[in-house]
Amino acid sequence: MMIELTPFLNKTVRTPLYIQLYQYIKKEIEEGGIPPGTLLPSIRYLSRHLHISKNTVESAYQQLTAEGYTESKPRSGIKVLPLEKPLVPSGHFTYPERQKREEEPARRYDFQYGDIDLDHFPFKTWKKCLQDAMNSDSPDLFLYGDRQGDKGLRAELAKYLFQARGVRCSLEQIVVCSGTQSAVSLLCQLLPSNGRVVAAENPGYDGVHSVFLNHGYTIRPIGLEPDGIDLSQLAESRAKLAYITPSHQFPYGMVLPIQKRLKLLKWADQNDAYIIEDDYDSEFRYQGQPIPSLKALDTKENVIYLGTFSKCFLPSARLSYIVLPERLTEQFCERFGRYSQSSSPMIQRAMYLFMKEGFFERHIRKMKKVYQEKHQTLISAIEKHFGHEVNIIGEKAGLHILMEIRRDIKDLISKAEKHDVKVYPVSDFWIDPNESPSSIVMAGFGGLSEQDIEEGVKRLYQAWFA
Amino acid sequence: MMIELTPFLNKTVRTPLYIQLYQYIKKEIEEGGIPPGTLLPSIRYLSRHLHISKNTVESAYQQLTAEGYTESKPRSGIKVLPLEKPLVPSGHFTYPERQKREEEPARRYDFQYGDIDLDHFPFKTWKKCLQDAMNSDSPDLFLYGDRQGDKGLRAELAKYLFQARGVRCSLEQIVVCSGTQSAVSLLCQLLPSNGRVVAAENPGYDGVHSVFLNHGYTIRPIGLEPDGIDLSQLAESRAKLAYITPSHQFPYGMVLPIQKRLKLLKWADQNDAYIIEDDYDSEFRYQGQPIPSLKALDTKENVIYLGTFSKCFLPSARLSYIVLPERLTEQFCERFGRYSQSSSPMIQRAMYLFMKEGFFERHIRKMKKVYQEKHQTLISAIEKHFGHEVNIIGEKAGLHILMEIRRDIKDLISKAEKHDVKVYPVSDFWIDPNESPSSIVMAGFGGLSEQDIEEGVKRLYQAWFA
In this complex, which of B59, B206, B289 lies closest to A338 when CB atoms are compared? Predict the structure, then answer.
C-alpha cells in the first residue's frame, strides 16, 4: 500500500522544511491518517511531487525512523510501523499557570531567622573573587571539579578550622557540600545503619530532623537541661548516633560546658557511637571568644563536624562542609566514589580566593561587630518596651533570640502581623510539635537594620499590649 | 584554696592579652596545674598583680566560665570546676599532609567521558550573566532562594522543555537540583518505598545506580535489546520503579522506538509504577532532530523527567532539574517543606538570564555543530586507522562512543596509556561488573579538539596494532 502525501509546507517560516514534513507525517501516523504497513512514497518521487530537495525528504524520513515511526526496508522503501494506541494531541503550548497557593504578604519588620545582614556584605570583593575564578585557566573549574571539593578551599578550611575552632584535620577529611542538609544526607548514606536510630536534641534544628526522617531514621528526642543536652537521657536512648549543636544550642542558645563535652565524648567512645556536631554559627559570640568545638576534644575519632558558610558568609553560596573522622575517610571514598561534587566549582574557587586573600577573616571580624550591635539593639529595645513582660532566652550569641511571654503565641503572631511585624513560632523545632511550649516566639535579627529592629520591637509591644 | 597565677603575657604579639590569659589558665586546668575547687584570684587582685586592666582579667574569666572550666559564685569568686580527664595537648598546628594516594598522571589524549568542549564556550557572555545576577537588588539572590529553584529559571525551563522536548509542565512541577545525583537522592526520599526496588537498564549510568544503592534500594538489572530495554524482563522484575535513558541509552546509545515507549508507559500505568526518564544529552543528535522525550507521551503521570545542564552547558554550573508528575507535587512540598535549595541562587539567576536572552538556544545550536564535527572526525579516524578491526557502537548522538574490539581491553587500556592516550573501561556500567563484556572501551570526545581526536586515534592504533 502506497499513499499520496499532501502536506502544506511553508517556506516563509523559520521551521526547516524537513521538520515540517516530519511533523506532518508523524501526526498523520499518530492520528491514524496513515495506517501501519503503509509504504511512504520514495524520496525521489516525493521531492519532485512537493518541489523540495531530496535531502529534505531524506532527513524527514530519517527522523521518523530514528524515533521508530517507520522502518527502512532495503529495496522496498520506508514502511509505517504499528502504534499501540493513538497519542496525545500536539499543538501550541504555553505552560499552565497553576492556581497559586496564597503567598503570605511580606512584612516590613520581618524577624526571619536565616536572613543575614546584606548592607555590610563585601559584594565588590566577592564579585571580584568570582571574576578571578572565572578567569582561571584550569578546566577543573568548568567541569565537575574534585569530588570532595576544591583542594585550595579545603586547605583554607583546614587552616581556618584549626585557628578558629581548634579542629585538626587533613584535606582528606574535609568534604565540601552544598548546605548542611546535603551534608546530613550524605552522612545518612554513609554511616552504619544501626537500626537507623539517631538521638537528637529536643528541641533542635528541624531542617536536619527532616533529612533524617526522609532517610528512614527514627529520631529519639533527648531533652535539654539548663547547660545543654541531657546525658542520662542520651545514655538511655541506646542510639549509636547523636546530632548535637554543642557550641550554641539551636534554638535555645546554651553552651555545652567542658565537663559535659568530655562525658559526651566518653559516651560515644564507650558505645562506639558517632556524634554529628553542627557548628552552624559559632563565629558570632558577643562575649569573649568563640567556644572551641567539640571536635577539638575528639581524640577517639567519634565526632563528625559540620560547618556552613550560610550564617557567616552568604546562604546563596550554598557551601558547607563535613570534617570526617580519619577512620571514615576511606569508607567515604568507597561509598561515594561515583558521586560528583554538588556545589559549583566556580563558587568554591571564588570562596577559596576570598579566604586566601584574608577577606574572610576580615569579614567575620566586621560582621561580629555588626551583629553584636544589632543584638544589643534588640535586647535593649525589648527591655525598654517590654520590661519584665518578656524573658529573653539565649542572649549571648548567634543571629536569633527566643522571647518567652506569658501569653498564647498563636494569637500574638497574628496580632504582630497586623502591625507589619513578623515573629515566628518555634513548635517545628520540637520533634513532637505538640510538646512545644505555647509561650515562646523566635526573633532573628540578622537581616534587619538597627533602626528596623528598634521600630519592630516597639510595634510588637503595641500589637501585644496596647 | 586560692592560688597565685604567673602567666607570661606578651604585649608585643597580636593575640589579645585576655586570650593569652584565658589560654594560660585553661591549659593549667586541663593539665592539672590548677586543681578543681581552686578559687581564682579576684579580678582586682590579678589586674594589679599582672599590671593589666580589670577588663582583661574579666574577659578571660568570662570565657572560661562560658566554656564551663570555671563557675562564677556570687560573693565567693571564680571557682575551678572538675574535669573528667586530661585533655589533648594543644600547641601550634599545621594540618597533616596525608600520604597521597598515587594520582594517575594526566594523558595528553584523554578520551574522558564527561569532559565538554570549552574552546567554544561563551565565557564572556556567561560572566556577564553572572555579573548581572550579582548586581540584582533582590535579596533572594543572596539568601537561601526559592526551595524549588529560581522562578524565572523554572519559567525558562518550562518553555525550553516544551519546545525542545515536548514536555508540558507547570512551574510547580519543576524542581531545580544540583546535579542528577542530587535529583535522584531527592526522589529516593520522595517515592513510595515499595520494597525499595528499582529496575534499571543493564548496563546503565553507574552514578545513578550508586545513589539508589546508597539509599538502600535493590537494583533489578534489565537487559537491553537492539532497540533498548527488554520490556518482558521489566514486566518480570515486578518493580514499581524504573530508571531509564530512552532517548539515548547510556552507554550503548540506542533510541527507544515509539512502539516500545508506548508499551513502557502502559506497563507503568498497569502496575502503578513510576518511570524515571534520564534525558541527559538529548540535545546532541547528529542526524535530524532530538528525539522527543518519553515524558511528552505521558498522559497518566507516571514519568518523572530528569534533565541536566552538565552536558549541554557546563558541568560546573551544577544545575539539573526534575519535572515531577502533577500528582507528586504536593507530596514533594510536604516531604521537603523544610529543605533548602541546594544549588546557588546566584548561578540559577545567571542561568535564567542566559536562557531568557536567547544565549542558551544559540549555544546549543553552535555546540551541536561543534560536537557533530568532532564526532565525524572521531568516526572517520577510527574507520581510517582501524578499518574493520573495531566496531563502533552508538554512533549517532551524544558525546561518547563505544569501541568493540576483539581483544582484552585491560591490556589495551594500559598499552594506550604508554602512548599518552586514555580510553576507559565500561565494566562499572554493568550492575554486576563481572558480567560486562571484556571487549568494549569507551571514548568520550567532548573535551578534545578535532586535531587531538585524530592524533589520539592514530596513537591508539599504534599502541594496539603496531
Answer: B206
